[in-house]
Design a protein that fits this description.
Layout lengths: L1 H7 L16 H11 L3 E3 L14 E2 L1 H6 L4 E5 L2 E5 L2 H10 L9 E5 L3 H10 L5 E6 L2 H14 L3 E6 L2 H8 L4 E4 L24 E4 L8 H8 L3 E3 L1 H17 L5 H17 L1
Parallel strand pairs: 2-4, 5-6, 5-8, 6-7, 8-9, 9-10
Antiparallel strand pairs: 1-3, 3-4
Helix pairs in contact: 1-10, 4-5, 4-9, 9-10
The structure holds NADP nicotinamide-adenine-dinucleotide phosphate.
NADP nicotinamide-adenine-dinucleotide phosphate binds next to helix 4, helix 5 and helix 9.
Length: about 260
């Protein structure tokens, strides 16, 4: 996605993947300044640990408690989290305004935290449902303290889903249920999905998750996790290059890659 964007705009950058063992994370990050690398993404399992080695951390990333993008600004290493921005862009560019919405988010892991803090900037209410109830409660508590939004939290099961789904405008799946290779499963029974609800699944592999297939069959409006993936990447691209990201070229690259994965 990033290399496709560089090619599209004829920018002289290259995006490479490095496997970094935990014990070498510090030298990898400090080496970035030494080598003059302009930016990088950080993924599992380094999103928390990396924060120790940065000079400055953006306020949203601090709240979320995880960094997925680092920018080297003249030797100063700055950490950001672009996942929440990606989620809001995916919704709003699909014509779904977040402002004033009653939202339920399933899951309380890293993806959920990033999405929840960003959506809570303008949503009316946020309900967190999670398999491990204590994580849902902890996330809702921090959200309630840091954002001006009504919050609720509960365990994720058929009863809490049935009650919650009757009270919301937008449902976000931020659990890993339905993600490759365990496709064909959904966090919600199809019979529980109300007709006409807006459903956003942040899982992007497969593009059409079981939840989104069920939601389409119930005439729900659906937003795909691929959109969030592209927009969080675009936000990182813009932080690194100061140039507007070529969204369509990035989306094409992601879709080609996912299609190749399905074939192989
Ligand atoms: P994570 O931190 O490991 O969190 C996983 C969440 O899923 C937890 O809330 C966990 O509940 C829940 N969960 C997992 N298996 C479950 C099951 N069988 N039943 C009920 N709940 C279950 O993972 P993450 O980083 O948040 O990622 C979650 C998904 O979002 C992944 O598919 C990831 O690829 C996707 N994602 C997409 C984007 C994007 O750009 N589209 C960005 C970030 C993440 P417990 O707390 O009970 O364990």
């Amino acid at each position: 996605m990033q290399n496709a964007a560089f090619r599209e705009l004829e920018l002289d950058y290259a995006y490479l993947a490095f496997r970094v063992p935990k014990e070498l994370l510090k030298s990898a990050i400090l080496g970035m300044a030494g080598l003059g690398i302009v930016g990088l993404n950080v993924t599992i399992p380094h999103k928390l640990e990396v924060m120790k080695y940065l000079d400055h951390i953006d306020e949203d990333a601090l709240l979320i408690g995880a960094v997925n993008t680092v920018v080297n600004r003249d030797g100063e290493l700055i950490g950001y989290n672009t996942d929440g921005i990606g989620a809001v862009e995916a919704l709003e560019r699909s014509g779904i305004q977040v402002k004033g919405k009653r939202i339920a988010i399933l899951g309380a892991g890293g993806g959920s935290r990033a999405v929840a803090f960003k959506l809570a900037e303008s949503a009316r209410s946020i309900t967190i449902l999670n398999r491990t109830k204590s994580r849902a409660v902890a996330l809702a508590k921090t959200l309630g303290k840091k954002r001006n939004v009504e919050v609720k939290a509960d365990r994720l099961n058929d009863d809490t889903l049935a009650t919650t789904l009757s009270e919301i405008d937008l449902l976000v799946n931020a659990t890993s249920i339905g993600m490759w290779p365990n496709t064909g499963v959904s966090p919600i029974k199809k019979s529980l999905l109300p007709r006409g609800l807006t459903v956003f699944d942040i899982v992007y592999n497969p593009v059409q998750t079981q939840l989104l297939c069920d939601a389409s069959e119930k005439d729900c409006r659906v937003v795909e996790g691929v959109d969030m993936l592209v927009y969080q990447g675009a936000a990182a691209f813009e932080l690194w290059t100061g140039t507007r990201a070529p969204i369509e070229a990035m989306r094409r690259a992601v879709m080609d890659n996912l299609r190749r994965k399905i074939k192989s």
